[in-house]
Amino acid sequence: MAEPLHIDRNGHRTWLKWHRARRKPSDPVFTGARILEAMRLGASVEVDLVVTADKGFAVLHDLALDHETTGTGLVAATGDAVIRQLHLRGNNGVPLADRVMLLDDLCALMEGGQVHPDALLQLDYKEDLAALDPKTVTNFARNVGPHAGNMIVSGGDLPAVLCLAEATPGLRVGYDPCYGESLARLQASLDYDAFTSEALRAAPQAAFIYLHHEIVLAADRAGYDMIAAIHADNRQVDAWTIREVTPASVAQVERLLALKVDQITTDDPEGLYAALTS
């Protein structure tokens, strides 16, 4: 089977993004081996970042260590040296041989491996602007700068994302408006055009707009094409997250492909690729 990288339909290519660096559901999240595999193949892959006590970044989703790692307490209260000694936990909670990575470690991994020119690593920042200070931003820019051409920084807190991007020349920006006040207004009004226009106005620097797939499909059922509207502003659209490959989710993805979505975030790129190409 071909590698689960993208689907080509009707002259349009849609990338399958490896959510939390998973190629298939049985994969644990954020392992260096999978991230490096994805970057060598030229995949789109996503990892999360949380600020540490030493003003670095842990490659983790949660603000606390207890669920994803063998550690306890807040990431923000834990130093880099301690975090590096922690092990990731598998999907069943059992500790793995793989240790928790810092952003420094991840970038060093890329330096030591062959990175495909098409590879795109999404750094999804999980906190807000208040968690960033000059030292944190400097650490980010120092590590990411040499790899900026293969990376994009994203998040729901736009000021924080822009702060990191502005310190790192060549780094692309992604924006997710599906949080907070804008999402609450959409849920109340169902005005998909206003929601889309607001997102584009709020983040003119954003190369990618990240949208929950159910919002895109709800807009489509209401007769509004959010993807076409964003394409008209020369941006790309990522629809997130397809958790499982089922007849229902494949039908949803088929509609997203027909709408020419640029990227689909999924926990099962391998299974989704197989279902769409069988």
TrEMBL record:
Top-level taxon in the UniProt lineage: Bacteria
Molecular function (Gene Ontology), one example: phosphoric diester hydrolase activity
Biological processes per GO annotation: lipid metabolic process
PANTHER family recorded: GLYCEROPHOSPHODIESTER PHOSPHODIESTERASE (PTHR46211:SF14), GLYCEROPHOSPHORYL DIESTER PHOSPHODIESTERASE (PTHR46211)
Protein name: Glycerophosphodiester phosphodiesterase
Lineage: Bacteria, Pseudomonadati, Pseudomonadota, Alphaproteobacteria, Hyphomicrobiales
